[in-house]
Amino acid sequence: MITGESRIEDILRNSPEKARIFVEFGVPCIVCGEPFWGTVRELCERYQVDVNMLLKKLNEDRKGA
């Protein structure tokens, strides 16, 4: 489960396809080809994104889509 304290680089290492979700929310998760260093919460605070909405989308089960 991805939480606010999950590190961006770990998420993208394990599930690179999730980068598109960050982009959908208007937040960059890749800087100069490298994952953003920090947590989901830090990224959301920096770009004024609702952390709960982003986490919900990141944790959705794609099988049900």
From TrEMBL:
<dbReference type="InterPro" id="IPR023883">
    <property type="entry name" value="CHP03980_redox-disulphide"/>
</dbReference>
<dbReference type="InterPro" id="IPR038062">
    <property type="entry name" value="ScdA-like_N_sf"/>
</dbReference>
<protein>
    <submittedName>
        <fullName>DUF1858 domain-containing protein</fullName>
    </submittedName>
</protein>
